[in-house]
Automatic annotation (TrEMBL), chain A:
Keywords: Methyltransferase, S-adenosyl-L-methionine, Transferase. SUPFAM superfamilies: S-adenosyl-L-methionine-dependent methyltransferases. It comes from the Eukaryota. PANTHER family: PTHR47441, RELEASE FACTOR GLUTAMINE METHYLTRANSFERASE. Gene3D superfamilies: Vaccinia Virus protein VP39. It holds the Pfam family PrmA. InterPro entries: HemK-like, RF_glutamine_MTase_cyano, SAM-dependent_MTases_sf. This is Methyltransferase small domain-containing protein.
From TrEMBL, chain B:
PANTHER family: LD18447P (PTHR43804:SF7). Keywords: Methylation, Protein biosynthesis. NCBIfam families: prfA (TIGR00019), PRK00591.1 (NF001859). SUPFAM superfamilies: Release factor. The keyword Metal-binding does not apply. It comes from Rehmannia glutinosa (Chinese foxglove). Belongs to the prokaryotic/mitochondrial release factor family. It comes from the Eukaryota. The lineage of its organism: Eukaryota, Viridiplantae, Streptophyta, Embryophyta, Tracheophyta. This is Peptide chain release factor domain-containing protein.
Length: 364, 435
């Protein structure tokens, strides 16, 4: 979804008129490109289908057996999910797809519901079989299966072509929260989330800034990401405070150069040669555009680092996610040598697994 | 309802006796006697009977028959307390009114004033009533000759002393030691104990019982974490319950709950005995327990790997460790790391708060130790006997013969109310013995 090194020639066709002549009220996307229509997560679909309790029980038992049969195969193979995790995911699928999910819970198995009871579901029975088959056989990520990811206190719509926000990334918002606390200038300033994907960080930042003057730009190179992020922004009713723009990194933000109070990014940072060895859920299903950071994984981080110097106003805050210790240290070193004097208070922060995941600092 | 009427009177007697003798166990023994008398226990212990026994003010106001006679000792104690309270109130009022009062002084005085407000209102009313009674006494003495006036004054006198009694009772209630935590929300922890799979199945049943009870009460029941056993029972389960006075109502549920039944796994049909432990903790927030972020260590206890974009996992389990005490709480069932962390913190705060409270309790008088629910979690408090269809609480000696009703959360009030009643009786007893 994000990379400056990808698909430059085709960009012009997407980017053309950045400002539409007929801006629709309340629509954050001001762009003439026809964006794909985002999928609705299962849990938000109407319970328009029906199946009997016995049919659903049969499906549930089948699905549980599928999950059990996986054992530790996937986790041994590529650090994928084991049975325990798949069982938990199955519970969540039931939670999302059934109007009365409790009926299939084990503790209700002793309740005497009539097996012929018709139950309302949000996807047809055939689809439930299909979806779980995709999860087990094709290793399709669970979040794509149900069409959403629970992230912080948000439920974000996700689909193929959009990176599924990671739990680690949640911490960037804690870092932003700390920076903004007691700093009215940051709180009421302009922020940007570059390579926004599902819009997770942009939405999180906008909610931290609150109802003041603070505004957030979310940019992404991928039209699908822009469509999905816009959908999520609207679902959280933040279209007045977040502008989603299509384009590579800082390109769509030329009009606010040097005016940003803060920016955050989780850019692609995996070294190209590592991509194929990733767990199947990632390597086979998630967009390479959002993962591949070039030869050493640093291409985009360096690009953002350079951009930060020109985009942020003095005192402006930044937070990047990186691949870990090596990249974080490289980045800090880069800031201290190559763009010397541009930043201060540069810091490396570890995630909950103890990996040196984030680099933060301020524009001098 | 012939029986019901008899019982109601009987209960009235028991209460008066209890108030006079101030021996809590008398009441409970009395109830047991009722039950042994062989009447339909469901009727004896239905909700209404218990509510009637729960000394609600409205009951006392309306049913003169049930007005407890407070013992002379108790009245004397309360009379002494009146001036103590009034003096304290005046002293605090003076601090609050001081222009140059230190902010901290002002704050603590104000806090105490708030607590005293209800009591002082009753005291004022009681003083007024005393004056009225004095006036009426005088009037009665002066109107010996005027028959009509005399009778009117006597009637008013009768009414006034009834009201005085009621006010005394209200004052007594407000003087009883109150647990500040009673109004808090609570954390429920259920753990399977001895008895293997059967114990974990019963742990699930007990957990569900509290869930249904909460629904019935209009409380919010939020499952925090469930560790399932192989047979789909619960090895351990944890929930946050919120609503009005939740902790005060449920605190006596802490302890060992024993079950006697034929397990589903038992082929020979033998009755097994197994046990489940229940812990009820008052909820607290980070401010209550002075929790500092520096004291917390948060980690994901996942097996290695590079994380971040490398991994797509729905496992966002989080473990929170409170470094100074070494307490750890791990939560894994939520769908986001943020929520797992929030829930883990909630449980951790409740545990820290409980630790602080038990420290404070230990240094406090013997008062609490003598009361029910001394906090000893290894105490066997209740037995659920399925073959006989009964549930017995060993602390108050009450048996409910509607085990299904109890498990469905419908008849749990039988015990909850009785335990609260006993708490009140114990408190009265300690109030007088302290003097």
């Amino acid at each position: 979804m994000k990379s400056s090194s990808f698909a430059r020639p085709s960009l012009s066709s997407i980017l053309q008129p950045v400002f539409s002549l007929r801006p629709k009220h309340g629509r954050p996307i001001i762009c003439s490109t026809i964006l794909p229509k985002p999928h609705t997560p299962i849990y938000l679909r109407p319970p328009a289908f029906q199946a009997t309790l016995s049919e659903l029980k049969k499906w549930h038992i089948w699905a549980k057996n599928q999950a059990t049969s996986v054992g530790s195969t996937f986790s041994d193979l590529d650090n994928g999910p084991d049975s325990t995790l798949l069982h938990r995911e199955l519970n969540w699928l039931v939670e999302d797809a059934l109007e009365q999910p409790a009926i299939l819970l084990p503790q209700n198995s002793r309740n005497n519901y009539d097996d012929a009871t018709p139950l309302s579901i949000r996807a047809c029975l055939d689809d439930l079989y299909k979806l779980w088959k995709q999860r087990i056989e094709e290793r399709r990520p669970f979040q794509y299966v149900v069409g959403c990811e629970h992230w912080r206190d948000l439920i974000l719509s996700v689909e193929e072509g959009v990176l599924i926000p990671r739990p680690e990334t949640e911490m960037i918002l804690d870092l932003v929260d700390n920076a903004v606390k007691g700093n009215e200038e940051l709180k009421n300033g302009l922020w940007a989330d570059l390579g926004t994907g599902s819009g997770a960080l942009a939405i999180g930042v906008a909610r931290i800034l609150g109802l003041g003057c603070g505004r957030v730009f979310a940019t992404d190179l991928s039209p699908i990401a822009v469509a999905v992020a816009s959908y999520n922004v609207e679902r959280y009713n933040l279209q007045d405070r977040i502008a989603v723009r299509l384009g590579s990194w800082f390109d769509p933000l030329k009009d606010v150069q040097g005016e940003l109070s803060g920016f955050v990014s989780n850019p692609p940072y995996i070294p190209s040669e590592d991509i194929n060895g990733l767990q199947a859920e990632v390597s086979k299903h998630e967009p390479r555009l959002a993962l591949d950071g070039g030869a050493n994984g640093m291409n985009d981080l360096i690009h953002l680092c350079n951009g930060a110097a020109s985009m942020l106003k003095p005192g402006g805050f930044f937070a990047f996610e990186t691949n870990g210790e090596k990249q974080s240290k490289f980045l800090v070193d880069y800031m201290h040598t190559k763009v010397k004097g541009s930043f201060y208070g540069v810091n490396i922060i570890s995630d909950f697994a103890g990996i040196q995941r984030f680099v933060t600092g301020y524009r001098a | 309802m012939g029986n019901g009427g008899r019982f109601r009177r009987f209960h009235g007697c028991v209460m008066i006796a209890a108030f006079q003798k101030l021996q809590s166990h008398f009441v409970m023994r009395g109830i047991n006697v009722c039950q042994l008398a062989g009447h339909n226990p469901n009727q004896v212990f239905d909700k209404n009977t218990l509510r009637r026994r729960s000394y609600s003010t409205s009951t006392f106001h309306k049913t003169a028959q049930l007005q407890p006679e407070l013992s002379v000792d108790l009245i004397n104690i309360m009379e002494q307390k009146l001036s103590v309270i009034e003096n304290r109130h005046a002293y605090l009022q003076a601090i609050v009114n001081q222009v140059d009062a230190l902010p901290e002084e002002y704050f603590t005085a104000n806090k105490e004033l708030k607590k005293l407000r209800h009591t002082i209102d009753v005291v004022t009313e009681l003083r007024k009533k005393h004056k009225e009674i004095e006036g009426l006494k005088l009037l009665i003495a002066e109107t010996q000759d005027d028959k009509d006036m005399h009778q009117m004054a006597s009637e008013e006198m009768g009414q006034a002393s009834e009201e005085e009694k009621h006010l005394r009772y209200l004052l007594l209630k407000s003087l009883l030691p109150k647990d500040d935590a009673d109004e808090r929300d609570c954390i429920l922890e259920v753990r399977a104990g001895t008895g293997g799979q059967e114990a974990s199945l019963f742990a699930m049943d007990i957990f569900k019982m509290y869930e249904k009870y909460s629904q019935k009460k209009g409380w919010k029941f939020d499952v925090l974490d469930v560790a399932e056993s192989d047979l789909k029972g619960y090895k351990e389960a944890c929930a946050a319950i919120s609503g009005a006075d939740v902790y005060g109502k449920l605190k006596f549920e802490s302890g060992i709950h024993r079950v006697q039944r034929v397990p589903v796994t038992e082929k020979a049909g033998r009755v097994h005995t197994s046990a489940v432990s229940v812990v009820i903790l008052p909820q607290a927030d980070q401010v209550d327990v002075h929790l500092r972020n520096e004291d917390l260590k948060i980690d994901t206890y996942r097996s290695g790997g590079s994380g971040g974009q490398h991994a797509n996992t729905t496992n966002s389990a989080v473990r929170v460790t409170h470094v100074p005490t070494g307490l750890t709480v791990a939560i894994q069932d939520e769908r986001s790391q943020h929520q797992n962390k929030a829930k883990a913190l909630k449980v951790l705060c409740a545990k820290l708060y409980e630790m602080e409270r038990s420290r404070a309790d230990a240094s406090r008088s013997r008062l609490r130790a003598e009361q029910i629910g001394s906090g000893d979690r290894s105490e066997r408090i209740r037995t659920y006997n399925f073959p006989q269809g009964r549930v017995t609480d060993h602390r108050v000696g009450i048996t409910s013969h509607s085990i299904d009703g109890v498990m469905q959360g419908e008849n749990l009030d039988t015990f909850v109310d009785a335990l609260l009643l006993q708490q009140e009786m114990d408190a009265i007893a300690s109030l007088t013995s302290k003097q």
